[in-house]
Amino acid sequence: MIIGYARVSSTGQNLDSQIEALKEAGCEKIFMEKKSGKQFENREELQNAIDFVRSGDTFIVTRLDRCSRNVKDLHQIIDVLNQKDVAFKATQQEVDTSTSTGRLMIGLLSIVAAFENDLRAERQADGIASAKKRGVKFGRSSKLTDEDVLNIIDLQNNTDMTNQDIANQFGIARSTLLRYVAQYQT
Questions:
Q1: Helical H runs in the chain?
Q2: How many domains would you assign to the chain?
Q3: 107 and 17 in one domain?
Q4: Sheet holding 58-61, edge to edge
Q5: Burial, 168: exposed, middle or buried (Cβ in 10 Å; 0-12, 13-18, 19+)?
Q6: Quick one: pLDDT at residue 65?
Q7: How far apart are CA 117 and CA 123, in angstroms?
Q8: CATH label of the domain that carries residue 28
Q9: How far is CA 9 from CA 4, 33, 34, 51, 54, in A?
Q10: Which of 73, 80, 151, 170 has its CA 20 to 30 A from that of 118?
Q11: Is 77 part of any domain?
Q12: Residues 58, 105 within the same domain
């Protein structure tokens, strides 16, 4: 049996062109969903399709990115299909794991994708380092200003307010208040 899987990322997108291509490829059953392709575990219809296929079946997508957005998930999906003796095909990229050339293509595409991820991570690290040199601060913005901390210390020293009362007044947790005071005093 030939089983198809069609996916778009958002509800505003249309599955029609994928469904048409999968029918032309001979799909007898097509699983469809409108979800992000980032994580295999979050796509119920993909999991249903993989559960549905049996030994000797062929699992078809129009493009690899319809099945997975990352190499790890793609290999996980293909491994599961291989264990079930199910061929994997991507019609627009002419990938077919039932042939040695198709298996080679999957391997090469995975290597290229991993290389691209490494390059992207290096560029991101370079960008972050450059931004830090220019004085850009990363992370959550400070909940309290230096003036707030001075006011808190003044309230602690000159009133009968508890740390919890002061924290409530500033809209922060007591532990946050204590951490800011400790950092300011060091």
A1: 16-24, 44-52, 64-67, 71-83, 100-133, 146-158, 163-170, 174-185
A2: 2
A3: yes
A4: 29-34, 2-8, 58-61, 87-90, 95-96
A5: middle
A6: 80
A7: 10
A8: 3.40.50.1390
A9: 17, 8, 5, 22, 27
A10: 80
A11: yes
A12: yes
**Which residue range(s) make up the domain with 77?**
2-111
The span from the CA of 98 to the CA of 43, in Å, is 25
Q: How far apart are CA 103 and CA 73, in angstroms?
A: 16
- As a whole number of angstroms, the distance between CA 135 and CA 175 comes to 28
Alpha-carbon Rg of the chain, whole angstroms?
Answer: 27
User: pLDDT tens digit string along 26-57?
Assistant: 999 999 998 776 666 778 899 999 999 999 99
| Per-residue pLDDT reduced to its tens digit, 61-72 | 998 888 877 777
Element containing residue 5 per DSSP (H, E): strand 2-8
- SS3 labels along 26-56: CCCEEEEEECCCCCHHHCHHHHHHHHHCCCC
Same domain, 6 and 97: yes
Decide: pTM greater than 0.90: no
Catalytic (active-site) positions? 9
Residue 102, both tokens = 């198709």
Residue ending a domain, choose from 65, 94, 111: 111
Tell me: do 101 and 150 sit in the same domain.
Answer: no
Return the structure tokens found at 115. Answer: 């290389």
